[in-house]
Amino acid sequence: MQNVCKRSNSAIFSRDRASNLIPGDQDPLQQNFTETLPTEMSVRIFSELDVKSLCRASLTCRHWNDIIEGSDQLWRSHCLTVLAICRREVDGDRLVGCSWKVTLVRNYRKGCVKRRWLNGRYSNIRSADDIPPNSMCPLDVETWGEILEAELDR
Asked: pTM value?
């Protein structure tokens, strides 16, 4: 009797192929690409992801996490986009010897807060009570100076 599958021929192919495997072998269709490719190629693939996707991918499995967390190159380009907002903070972290990922995480939120202030999002705030919760973080004196100048120009 012949197996008839209403889904697709690929499901039958996968089932037939899996049944012919030697015990202990993994079906090539089910194999993790990071285990078959050189690490450099996996890093190249991961480098196409944005920060949010990269963080999600690092949660997929231990092997992906090891590659993503262990590659400073993956975080560098994302960190350089934050550099435009918080140059002093990024340069300071790099001088201290922080990894690109640590630098990115430490300065991303500062960059968001600074950008909101400079774009006038908080221009209508008259007291500390008016500041939305979870919207502030410590900023350096020079950043506050830039924010004050922007507010005075408005």
From this structure: 0.55
